[in-house]
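hiii so my PI (J.) wants the whole complex modelled not just the main chain, which honestly fair. so below is everything: two entries, each one labled with what it is. i double checked the lines twice but i was tired so who knows lol
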Amino acid sequence: MRVILVLAAKELRDSFRNRVVVAATVLLAALALALGFLGSAPTGTIGASPLAVTVVSLSSLSIFLLPLIALTIAHDSLVGEIERGTMLLLLTYPVARWQAVAGKFLGHLTVLAIATVVGFGVGGAALAWAAETGIEGWPAFAALVGSSVLLGAAFLAVGYLLSAVAAERATAAGLAVAVWLLFVLIYDAALLGLLAAGEGDLVTPGVFRALLLLNPADTYRLLNLTGFEEVRGFSGLLGVAEQAALAPSLLVAVLAAWVAVPLAAAGLVFSRRMI
Amino acid sequence: MTVVADLDDVTVRYGRIEAVRAVSLDLPAGQRLALIGHNGAGKTTLMKLLLGLIRPTRGHVRVLGDDPAGGRHAAALREVGFLPENVAFHEAMTGGEVLRFYARLKRRPAKECAALLERVGLARAAGRRVRTYSKGMRQRLGLAQALLGEPRLLLLDEPTTGLDPDLRAVFYDILRERARTGGAVLLSSHILTELEERTDRIAVMDRGRLVAAGTLDELRRRAGLPVRLRLRVAPGQAAAVAARLNGLGGSVDGNRVILECRWQDKLEALRRVTALGPEVEDVDIEAPGLAAVYARFTSVGEAP
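here's the output for the full assembly
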């Protein structure tokens, strides 16, 4: 455990030094503030909680941004150090291969968690202060922050797997872009096409549920847009929510599996790799 | 004599290429062993075996009694220091930070770092980023991290390549000190002349095989290379002297007589020369250097 913490601390310090933490935090805070203040304009004073509205718009944008940040950080983590030669020296120290993966992952996860919690937190707090809002939107907003960290962790883990598999840094970068496009853009379009083409015959509700869970981004979307009563009304996802009918605890478990399985695979692949 | 690490009939095969073939080698405590051989002869592979980075296809590797690639390798690796060829560090960190990071991984106190930086001559540059370091400074830092925890096994892959003579002397001083205090040192190098005086034993590798191992004297003997004696003789006496030293292959070159004999017959030849009396004014002994020994044991030609 000590080794993992030493590696995580170094990764965190590196990320503070090369401004990754600051950049990601500012980006997420700006996003939360912009969506919060612009997004609450049309609702006016009809009594909708501005935080609940912000959860809808923010989660829709986080789906694009958080995987991008996570993959950007993660794709280089293993293959980059192998290529630069620092991994060779590290592995001659009393560090097992899985510890090297776990330590670096923990460091990067902390980076992502700080950026998300601080970034979204600043945005949420400013919004709540400006609107003098009550308590009603907060649980949904807290869930948004928590699930966003989980979404980031899932794409970090996928990025680590790419980094363990790729022979070169350039390959890892290319794979990261492909994975991002697939999960964030192509998957939903393809799913929609499938639904439209089959007019409901091709895709039964059971298959539809399974297909949504096979994409961490969709699992995250379901969790945030259907998990809370006050959010559901604004999300326009009522139909999907009834079709999907998945408990939040199951969705969280699926996201957790999207962290654990790719990360374990990354550890396994990396253990067998020639350094 | 304690053996710190040993290889027993080790073969490493990458696909169809045999990088190391049936190598057996002991690394005793208190000894500096030089590993020489062409590029690609298997020197780095041998070090990676000792570090547990690769497993032998056949045979056994033991470091401090354990298999370095086995499950309990962590304990053994705390006793091993390694300086890779072309060592790379995290460029954005300062030299001091790099060393403290590696010290934490080896569970060494931070105060050891200050002493090591002093020892390798980096104390004043410790606060600068590695990005600004010269080749020599990087190599100093590399040696400092390899020395963390006074390792019982020190592996250095071409540590002095590209260094100036002063710094090379510093390196060899440190290695001598490590061996004197009971460490086993294995270093590879292409700078053969500096190895002659500064190592205890030499192992020659050729295309994955260990073709010879021993002290320089032992290798000279085994190589069967002649020792050359150059005599300066009184004017006009050269032919007569050469004739009296028949059997030693004396050839005449002006005022000089050049003799050749086997390494083990050197003293006998000298006795005969000194018995000649005042006609011989001076004797130079030319022992074959490591370069000649090396050339005898290794094959020249295409890349393996």
